[in-house]
Amino acid sequence: MSDDPARLLPMPEDWRRALAVVAHPDDMEYGGSGAIARWTGEGREVAYLLATRGEAGIDGMSPEEAATVREREQIESAAVVGVETVEFLDHPDGVVEYGLALRRDIAAAIRRHRPELVVIINHRETWPGGGLNMADHRHVGQATLDAVRDAGNRWVFRDLLDEGLDPWQGVRWVAVAASPLSTHAVDIGDTFERAVESLHRHRAYLRGLGQTEDDARRFLREFAETSGRRFGVALATEFELIAL
Predict the structure, then answer these.
(1) Residue pLDDT, tens place only, 209-234
(2) What is the pTM of this model?
(3) Region label for 228, one of left (φ > 0), alpha (ψ between -120 and 50) or beta (otherwise)
(4) Residues with Cβ < 8 Å from 70, sequence gap 6 or more?
(5) The dihedral of CA 148, 142, 53, 182: what is its sign?
(6) What's the pLDDT tens digit per position in 10-41?
(7) What is the set of domains in the chain, with CATH numbers?
Protein backbone atom coordinates (compact mmCIF):
# COMPACT_ATOMS: atom_id res chain seq x y z
CA MET A 1 0.00 0.00 0.00
CA SER A 2 1.34 3.42 -0.93
CA ASP A 3 2.01 6.04 1.76
CA ASP A 4 1.01 8.77 -0.69
CA PRO A 5 -2.48 10.04 0.35
CA ALA A 6 -3.21 11.02 -3.25
CA ARG A 7 -2.45 7.54 -4.54
CA LEU A 8 -5.51 5.49 -5.52
CA LEU A 9 -5.76 1.81 -4.61
CA PRO A 10 -7.08 -0.99 -6.84
CA MET A 11 -10.79 -1.79 -6.54
CA PRO A 12 -11.69 -5.22 -5.12
CA GLU A 13 -12.16 -7.90 -7.76
CA ASP A 14 -13.56 -10.83 -5.75
CA TRP A 15 -17.20 -10.27 -6.65
CA ARG A 16 -19.62 -11.34 -9.38
CA ARG A 17 -22.70 -9.07 -9.29
CA ALA A 18 -23.09 -5.29 -9.11
CA LEU A 19 -26.02 -2.87 -9.13
CA ALA A 20 -25.50 0.74 -10.19
CA VAL A 21 -28.10 3.12 -8.71
CA VAL A 22 -28.26 6.67 -10.08
CA ALA A 23 -30.74 9.51 -10.42
CA HIS A 24 -30.74 10.16 -14.18
CA PRO A 25 -29.90 8.82 -17.62
CA ASP A 26 -26.26 9.89 -18.33
CA ASP A 27 -25.14 9.81 -14.66
CA MET A 28 -23.07 6.64 -15.04
CA GLU A 29 -21.73 7.80 -18.39
CA TYR A 30 -20.05 10.87 -16.91
CA GLY A 31 -17.16 8.98 -15.40
CA GLY A 32 -18.23 5.48 -14.34
CA SER A 33 -19.02 3.57 -17.52
CA GLY A 34 -15.40 2.78 -18.36
CA ALA A 35 -15.20 0.69 -15.21
CA ILE A 36 -18.57 -0.90 -15.98
CA ALA A 37 -17.29 -1.92 -19.42
CA ARG A 38 -14.20 -3.51 -17.91
CA TRP A 39 -16.24 -5.42 -15.34
CA THR A 40 -18.77 -6.79 -17.82
CA GLY A 41 -15.90 -7.69 -20.14
CA GLU A 42 -14.49 -9.81 -17.32
CA GLY A 43 -17.79 -11.69 -17.11
CA ARG A 44 -19.31 -9.88 -14.13
CA GLU A 45 -23.02 -9.07 -14.00
CA VAL A 46 -23.99 -5.40 -13.75
CA ALA A 47 -27.52 -3.98 -13.71
CA TYR A 48 -28.63 -0.33 -13.75
CA LEU A 49 -31.37 1.21 -11.62
CA LEU A 50 -32.43 4.79 -12.37
CA ALA A 51 -34.63 6.78 -10.00
CA THR A 52 -36.01 8.94 -12.84
CA ARG A 53 -36.31 8.95 -16.62
CA GLY A 54 -34.53 12.30 -16.90
CA GLU A 55 -37.66 14.05 -18.11
CA ALA A 56 -36.62 17.47 -16.78
CA GLY A 57 -33.17 17.36 -18.34
CA ILE A 58 -33.70 18.94 -21.79
CA ASP A 59 -34.88 22.53 -21.71
CA GLY A 60 -36.18 22.57 -25.29
CA MET A 61 -38.13 19.29 -25.04
CA SER A 62 -41.33 18.59 -23.14
CA PRO A 63 -40.97 16.28 -20.13
CA GLU A 64 -43.24 13.70 -21.76
CA GLU A 65 -41.11 13.51 -24.89
CA ALA A 66 -37.84 13.74 -22.99
CA ALA A 67 -38.76 10.79 -20.77
CA THR A 68 -39.23 8.55 -23.82
CA VAL A 69 -36.11 9.79 -25.60
CA ARG A 70 -33.84 9.60 -22.58
CA GLU A 71 -35.05 6.15 -21.57
CA ARG A 72 -34.21 4.88 -25.05
CA GLU A 73 -30.82 6.61 -25.02
CA GLN A 74 -29.97 5.13 -21.62
CA ILE A 75 -30.81 1.60 -22.69
CA GLU A 76 -28.66 2.00 -25.82
CA SER A 77 -25.86 3.54 -23.77
CA ALA A 78 -25.88 0.73 -21.22
CA ALA A 79 -25.71 -1.89 -23.97
CA VAL A 80 -22.47 -0.35 -25.24
CA VAL A 81 -20.78 -1.24 -21.94
CA GLY A 82 -22.36 -4.67 -21.64
CA VAL A 83 -25.32 -3.88 -19.37
CA GLU A 84 -28.55 -5.55 -20.47
CA THR A 85 -30.77 -4.86 -17.45
CA VAL A 86 -31.87 -1.22 -17.05
CA GLU A 87 -34.75 -0.39 -14.69
CA PHE A 88 -36.52 2.93 -14.02
CA LEU A 89 -38.36 3.86 -10.83
CA ASP A 90 -40.32 6.89 -12.14
CA HIS A 91 -39.53 9.28 -9.30
CA PRO A 92 -39.90 12.87 -10.58
CA ASP A 93 -36.77 14.25 -12.21
CA GLY A 94 -35.39 17.37 -10.56
CA VAL A 95 -37.42 17.02 -7.38
CA VAL A 96 -36.51 13.52 -6.14
CA GLU A 97 -37.27 13.40 -2.43
CA TYR A 98 -35.21 11.48 0.07
CA GLY A 99 -37.60 9.37 2.11
CA LEU A 100 -39.15 6.00 2.78
CA ALA A 101 -40.66 5.58 -0.69
CA LEU A 102 -37.28 5.98 -2.37
CA ARG A 103 -35.51 3.80 0.17
CA ARG A 104 -38.12 1.07 -0.28
CA ASP A 105 -37.85 1.09 -4.06
CA ILE A 106 -34.07 0.81 -3.94
CA ALA A 107 -34.12 -1.83 -1.19
CA ALA A 108 -36.49 -3.89 -3.34
CA ALA A 109 -34.09 -3.69 -6.27
CA ILE A 110 -31.15 -4.72 -4.09
CA ARG A 111 -33.12 -7.74 -2.92
CA ARG A 112 -34.03 -8.62 -6.53
CA HIS A 113 -30.54 -8.32 -7.95
CA ARG A 114 -28.56 -9.45 -4.86
CA PRO A 115 -25.37 -7.52 -5.65
CA GLU A 116 -22.08 -7.72 -3.83
CA LEU A 117 -21.08 -4.27 -5.08
CA VAL A 118 -23.40 -1.27 -5.28
CA VAL A 119 -22.27 1.71 -7.37
CA ILE A 120 -23.64 5.23 -6.86
CA ILE A 121 -22.87 8.74 -8.05
CA ASN A 122 -21.41 11.36 -5.74
CA HIS A 123 -23.89 12.04 -2.93
CA ARG A 124 -21.84 14.76 -1.26
CA GLU A 125 -22.52 18.50 -1.39
CA THR A 126 -19.76 19.34 -3.88
CA TRP A 127 -17.96 17.80 -6.85
CA PRO A 128 -14.21 17.16 -6.99
CA GLY A 129 -12.55 20.53 -7.44
CA GLY A 130 -15.63 22.41 -6.25
CA GLY A 131 -19.07 23.17 -7.62
CA LEU A 132 -22.35 22.37 -5.93
CA ASN A 133 -23.89 18.96 -6.44
CA MET A 134 -27.62 18.77 -7.16
CA ALA A 135 -30.32 17.49 -4.83
CA ASP A 136 -31.31 14.49 -6.98
CA HIS A 137 -27.78 13.06 -6.83
CA ARG A 138 -27.49 13.66 -3.10
CA HIS A 139 -30.90 12.23 -2.28
CA VAL A 140 -30.58 9.11 -4.43
CA GLY A 141 -27.07 8.44 -3.18
CA GLN A 142 -27.99 8.78 0.47
CA ALA A 143 -31.16 6.73 0.00
CA THR A 144 -29.09 3.98 -1.61
CA LEU A 145 -26.65 3.88 1.28
CA ASP A 146 -29.59 3.51 3.65
CA ALA A 147 -31.36 1.00 1.39
CA VAL A 148 -28.33 -1.29 1.51
CA ARG A 149 -29.04 -1.73 5.22
CA ASP A 150 -32.80 -1.85 4.68
CA ALA A 151 -32.39 -4.67 2.16
CA GLY A 152 -30.80 -6.86 4.81
CA ASN A 153 -33.42 -6.37 7.52
CA ARG A 154 -36.55 -8.47 7.12
CA TRP A 155 -38.48 -6.26 9.54
CA VAL A 156 -37.93 -3.10 7.47
CA PHE A 157 -40.40 -2.79 4.54
CA ARG A 158 -42.07 -6.06 5.54
CA ASP A 159 -44.36 -5.92 2.52
CA LEU A 160 -41.36 -6.84 0.37
CA LEU A 161 -41.52 -10.30 1.92
CA ASP A 162 -45.03 -10.66 0.52
CA GLU A 163 -43.56 -9.92 -2.92
CA GLY A 164 -41.12 -12.79 -2.51
CA LEU A 165 -38.15 -10.51 -1.89
CA ASP A 166 -36.14 -12.08 0.89
CA PRO A 167 -33.53 -10.03 2.78
CA TRP A 168 -30.12 -9.62 1.16
CA GLN A 169 -27.11 -8.94 3.38
CA GLY A 170 -24.53 -9.69 0.72
CA VAL A 171 -23.54 -6.14 -0.26
CA ARG A 172 -19.86 -5.87 0.66
CA TRP A 173 -19.01 -2.45 -0.74
CA VAL A 174 -20.58 0.75 -2.04
CA ALA A 175 -18.46 2.49 -4.68
CA VAL A 176 -19.09 6.22 -5.13
CA ALA A 177 -18.20 7.57 -8.58
CA ALA A 178 -17.12 11.21 -9.04
CA SER A 179 -16.60 11.61 -5.30
CA PRO A 180 -14.35 14.34 -3.88
CA LEU A 181 -13.09 11.68 -1.45
CA SER A 182 -11.98 9.00 -3.92
CA THR A 183 -9.80 6.18 -2.59
CA HIS A 184 -9.73 3.49 -5.30
CA ALA A 185 -9.63 3.22 -9.09
CA VAL A 186 -10.06 0.96 -12.11
CA ASP A 187 -7.74 0.96 -15.13
CA ILE A 188 -9.90 1.82 -18.16
CA GLY A 189 -7.17 2.02 -20.78
CA ASP A 190 -8.80 -0.81 -22.74
CA THR A 191 -12.38 0.38 -22.27
CA PHE A 192 -12.13 4.15 -22.58
CA GLU A 193 -13.49 4.22 -26.13
CA ARG A 194 -16.55 2.24 -25.04
CA ALA A 195 -17.06 4.74 -22.22
CA VAL A 196 -16.95 7.59 -24.74
CA GLU A 197 -19.39 5.83 -27.05
CA SER A 198 -21.76 5.17 -24.15
CA LEU A 199 -21.87 8.92 -23.43
CA HIS A 200 -22.28 9.71 -27.14
CA ARG A 201 -25.47 7.60 -27.18
CA HIS A 202 -27.11 10.37 -25.11
CA ARG A 203 -27.41 12.39 -28.30
CA ALA A 204 -30.51 14.43 -27.47
CA TYR A 205 -29.21 15.25 -24.03
CA LEU A 206 -25.83 16.42 -25.35
CA ARG A 207 -27.55 18.56 -27.98
CA GLY A 208 -29.72 20.07 -25.28
CA LEU A 209 -26.58 21.04 -23.36
CA GLY A 210 -25.04 22.52 -26.49
CA GLN A 211 -22.22 19.96 -26.37
CA THR A 212 -20.64 18.09 -29.24
CA GLU A 213 -19.25 14.57 -29.24
CA ASP A 214 -15.76 16.09 -29.18
CA ASP A 215 -16.71 18.05 -26.05
CA ALA A 216 -17.85 14.86 -24.38
CA ARG A 217 -14.67 13.02 -25.33
CA ARG A 218 -12.44 15.82 -24.00
CA PHE A 219 -14.37 15.90 -20.72
CA LEU A 220 -14.00 12.16 -20.16
CA ARG A 221 -10.35 12.07 -21.19
CA GLU A 222 -9.39 14.94 -18.89
CA PHE A 223 -10.81 13.20 -15.86
CA ALA A 224 -9.54 9.76 -16.90
CA GLU A 225 -6.01 11.12 -17.31
CA THR A 226 -6.14 12.88 -13.95
CA SER A 227 -7.32 9.70 -12.25
CA GLY A 228 -4.75 7.67 -14.16
CA ARG A 229 -1.90 9.79 -12.81
CA ARG A 230 -3.08 9.07 -9.27
CA PHE A 231 -3.37 5.37 -10.06
CA GLY A 232 -0.19 4.94 -12.08
CA VAL A 233 -1.83 4.13 -15.42
CA ALA A 234 -2.74 6.11 -18.52
CA LEU A 235 -6.51 6.24 -17.97
CA ALA A 236 -8.60 5.36 -14.92
CA THR A 237 -11.97 5.79 -13.25
CA GLU A 238 -11.87 6.55 -9.55
CA PHE A 239 -14.28 5.71 -6.72
CA GLU A 240 -14.71 6.36 -3.05
CA LEU A 241 -14.98 2.83 -1.69
CA ILE A 242 -17.14 2.26 1.39
CA ALA A 243 -16.59 -1.19 2.90
CA LEU A 244 -19.53 -2.71 4.77
Answers:
(1) 999 999 999 999 999 999 999 999 99
(2) 0.96
(3) alpha
(4) 24, 25, 26, 53, 54, 55, 57, 58, 202, 204, 205
(5) negative
(6) 999 999 999 999 999 999 999 899 999 999 99
(7) 19-243 (3.40.50.10320)
